[in-house]
Amino acid sequence: MAKRSFSITRRLTITLTGIVTLFWLMAAGFGMMVMQDEFTEIFDSALKETGERLMPLVVDDLLQQEASGGPRRLEAPTIAHGEDYLIYQVRDSGGSVILHSHDATQAPFDAPLQQGFHDTGDYRIYTAASVDGSIFVQIADAFDHRREAMIEGGFALLLPLLILLPASIFAIRFTVRRLLSPIDDLRLAIGTKDGGNMAPVERETLPPELQPIAHSVNLLLTRLRAALDAEREFAANSAHELRTPIAGALAQTQRLVEELPPGALQGRARQVETSLGKLARLSEKLLQLSRAEAGIGGGEPVDLSPILSLVIEDARRVPLAHGRLHVVPETFPPLERPVNSDAFAIVVRNLVENALLHSPPGSLVEIELQPQGVIRIVNQAAVLGSELLAGIRSRFIRGPTSAPGSGLGLAIVSSLVEQMGGELQLLSPAEGRQDGFEARIVLSGQTQR
After folding, report:
1. Is 305 left (phi over 0), alpha (psi -120 to 50) or beta?
2. Where are the beta strands (DSSP E) in 238-392?
3. Are residues 281 and 327 in the same domain?
4. How far apart are the first and last CA of the chain?
5. Do 161 and 17 share a structural domain?
6. N or C: which end of the chain has fewer CB within 10 A?
């Protein structure tokens, strides 16, 4: 199973978002710790202040009760409708509850009668004592109230994270993609380099961190261009230099065949003639291939119709094509495209030769120029499999045929059509037929240079 890959932008977005979230959570946790200490000080201060303020009122109320001889109930300033945050009890030196708030229980608090703070399971209690030590006021604050305040404070710290996290993801992604755009530009520039485009990569507009990469790529392109030029020059020179001696040897062999009497010697001479013919065709294809790899497809706008007619007329002179070429329409309309005339002639000549060689003798080969610059060349042939149909564009790949050939024709055509900015479509069976082979050239109005 192939390992799934992630883009740098996605990795940086996820990483930076995770780091920001982690730091925010750490800051929120630290803030909650500080807030808990501050809340404890505030609540304890409120407890102590309430107890100290309540003590004189309690003592005064008790003294008035003793003077009047009748009981009076102290109205606590903290009484409110509903639950009180602070509850209190007034106890005597024996621990009995003399007075309490309406929310407090009649049972004494589980806290000693000593000045200061004391914690129980549910409350934090502050005890204030009178001067003579006979009266004690105990103010209790429930831990639930403090936890509720902490939870609300914590939500106040974490709630912005829920809102800002999606926004930060988009902001980080936008920033990362913008900062990484020079890398993407460099990737696209390198991706356009092939045998027909060896121009150096632009360095001046790149950040300093990427300039060494562009420099290395340019050095590699220079070495590769030199190697390809040497290879193309060798192939072109070899093919060109071989044409003359091969043609001379072929002519001498053909003359020798005519002069020899029928027999074994004449048969051997004919084999030599056949081999020399194959070598001549191979040298011609190698010369065309070297020109195709040199990137000759592009050019100035030119009318291709006369060139198409000229190549077809030239093909009709070959004995193999006698009476077999069916052209539609008979007179081609203008077809102006920015392509090289020689490159276009090489493309059409190879496709017509392939159609004649790889179809039954005497069968028709249809050549049609459709509107919008579509050229169809159709011949009779057995149906090719999809795998073979996709592979015959490669060099030295041939279909199931015994016809002479080198397996370079469609590779040359494919390369040149791509340089012309067009598309080579291979169909088997041909359109509208049960069998046959169709090569379709779709030429657009633009040319790749």
Report:
1. alpha
2. 298-303, 325-328, 336-339, 365-370, 374-379
3. no
4. 40
5. yes
6. N
Q: One-letter amino acid identity for 77?
A: P
Residues 6+ apart with CB under 8 A from 214: 186, 201, 202, 203, 206
**Structural tokens at position 262:** 């029928």
Burial code (b: 16+ CB inside 10 Å, e: under 16) for 138-162 equals bbbbbeebbeebeeebbeebeeeee
* 308 and 449 fall within a common domain: yes
Domain containing residue 439: 296-449
pLDDT along the chain (449 residues), means of 10: 66 85 84 83 86 83 62 44 72 83 80 87 87 85 84 82 81 84 83 73 83 86 79 67 79 85 86 84 76 74 91 90 89 88 90 90 91 89 83 76 74 87 89 91 64
Same domain? 444 vs 314: yes
Left if phi > 0, otherwise alpha if psi is -120 to 50, otherwise beta: which for 8?
A: alpha
Q: Please tell me whether residues 234 and 93 are part of one structural domain.
A: no
Cα atoms found within 13 Å of the Cα of residue 433, Cβ hemisphere only:
16
Three-state DSSP at 177 gives helix
Q: Letter for the amino acid at 183?
A: I
Q: Are residues 34 and 153 in the same domain?
A: yes
Residues facing 197 on adjacent strands: 194
H helices of 8-142, in order, are: 8-68
Q: What is the 8-class DSSP label of residue 194?
A: B
DSSP string for 101-124: -TTS-SSPPSS-SSSEEEE-SSEE
Q: pTM score, two decimals?
A: 0.51
Residue among 347, 334, 336 at smallest CA distance from 299: 336
β 365-370/325-328 pair status: parallel
305 occurs within a structural domain? yes
Residue 203 sits in a domain whose CATH number is 1.10.287
Give the β-pairing of 365-370 and 437-442.
unpaired
CATH number for the domain including 376? Answer: 3.30.565.10
Neighbours of 290 (CB within 10 A): 21
